[in-house]
Fold this protein.
Amino acid sequence: MTKPLFDTLALIGAGLIGSSIARAARAQGAVRRIVVTARSPKTRTRVAELGFADKVVKTNAEAVEGADLVIVCIPVGACGAVAKEVGPHLKPGATVSDVGSVKGSVLRDMAPHLPQSAHFIPAHPVAGTEHSGPDSGFAELFDNRWCILTPPEDADPEAVERLAAFWRLLGAKVEIMNAEHHDIVLAITSHIPHLIAYNIVGTAADVEQVTQSEVIKFSAGGFRDFTRIAASDPVMWRDVFLNNKEAVLEMLGRFSEDLAALQRMIRWDDGDALEKLFTRTRAIRRGIIEAGQDTAAADFGRPHGHEE
Ligand code: NAP
């Protein structure tokens, strides 16, 4: 077993991501002890039953007392309030991180509440499924997935490297970039695809000429993949869009222009242009498979989804 990188890990929030971190950290011996808290008594009870933490406590303040690494694993809109709550209780020199899908807002909302002595290094493991809650986590979630760290400019390089080593031990590949760039990249690779899925599933549900039973019956025609993404946690995704507003609106503008161009190709029977685009997009799909970020298996053959 490897020597633990941190003594005590405190996880605030024990849903899909928090519980996967706990399971993976324990499996890899990345920390000596894991303390977990969650907002509701129901989740805390379930965490205790599942047994992936050494201790389950009631308050966030209690969870961070004496912790060497604190990871906030809750919807991004709630991160500021939690930082305010735990800031005064942090152990001097503790590393504080998160897993939020948006980084600019997390940096803006959490940093002012943390003491100078804390090493604040936001992070985003680009791995997930459409499931939520403590039962949905698994130790292999981060295997071969990227974890993006967005340290502030004045972050201590040693603390950044220690957190990077932690994520590598959990199976992830680590990349470092600034928060603003992260939010633009993720707007197009994750946030807009989710918005499209939410929209198309909503549209299909509203089309009067097609019955609900037909939507379900013929879903293998492409719709089914969208329904999986559109089943993702409503609160988490509400917070993503409200907190990455500018980048999402910018990318949505570009997307709408390209959609209008496609509309025009269809209207004017421009088969060549359609074929050219579809050939280009097929090559992108092959590149993703070659990079090991997906398998060629059909959706129903996969062990887990892994959009984020
Ligand atoms: P989840 O399974 O729904 O778990 C969320 C956890 O946050 C639960 O423990 C919940 O506590 C707690 N929580 C919810 N609202 C809260 C609030 N207002 N204050 C304090 N705690 C609160 O969610 P998740 O998928 O693990 O997502 C957590 C974070 O990871 C989000 O920021 C998300 O952007 C990011 N992320 C998600 C994915 C993904 O695919 N799901 C991937 C990468 C990153 P209760 O159960 O007690 O309500």
